[in-house]
TrEMBL record:
The keyword Nucleotide-binding does not apply. Residues 1-165 form the Prolyl 4-hydroxylase alpha subunit domain. It comes from Alexandrium catenella. This is Prolyl 4-hydroxylase alpha subunit domain-containing protein. One of its GO terms (molecular function) is L-ascorbic acid binding. Keywords: Dioxygenase, Iron, Metal-binding, Oxidoreductase. It comes from the Eukaryota. The lineage of its organism: Eukaryota, Sar, Alveolata, Dinophyceae, Gonyaulacales. PANTHER family: PROLYL 4-HYDROXYLASE ALPHA SUBUNIT, TRANSMEMBRANE PROLYL 4-HYDROXYLASE.
Length: 166
């Protein structure tokens, strides 16, 4: 619950607010039922110049990424960058899996393979009326946002790390 301090969360948010968010609406792409899967804003940075700002330009984000890499015991080069999402009232992301197949992001996949783990940090707390939780349907578990709280989960199978973990 205290992976980041309140001050560290504020520093990251200041960097992202200064850099700017972009809309991250995501549609299902199904021509028969093209529904909105995600309604949020995003800030993205990468380790290589692939059209997004370089993460190293942001000291607070760099500090966070190094701490995450240390906990996971992986090098930053083996990650797929950083996404910081902002959900306003009414924002959402429907149930989805964080596994990234090669067909979805071929450049990222060539660098690090499928996303093996997701490491998520809440930079703000939920509002008084609740909401904002991360729901793991198959586990029947809801994690409430708490500023500085980190959660980590696998996206691939331990015995077969290229395969999606349902």
């Amino acid at each position: 619950d205290t992976f980041l301090s309140v001050e560290e969360c504020r520093d990251i948010l200041k960097e992202v607010d200064a850099a700017g968010y972009h809309d991250s609406l995501m549609w299902s792409g199904d021509p028969n039922n093209n529904v909105l899967w995600r309604n949020s804003s995003s800030f993205l940075c990468q380790d290589a110049d692939v059209g997004y700002p370089l993460c190293e330009r942001y000291p607070a984000i760099t500090k966070l990424r190094k701490r995450m890499a240390s906990v996971l015991q992986v090098n930053l080069e083996h990650g797929d960058g950083m996404a910081i999402l902002r959900y306003l009232t009414g924002g959402y992301y429907v149930y989805h899996h964080d596994y990234i197949p090669e067909s979805s992001l071929p450049t990222t996949f060539r660098n690090c393979g499928p996303r093996a783990m997701t490491f998520m940090v809440y930079l703000t707390a939920s509002e008084e009326d609740g909401g904002g939780e991360t729901h793991f349907l198959q586990l029947g578990l809801k994690v409430q946002p708490k500023q500085g709280r980190a959660i980590v989960w696998p996206d691939t199978r331990a015995e077969s790390p290229l395969d999606k973990d349902d």
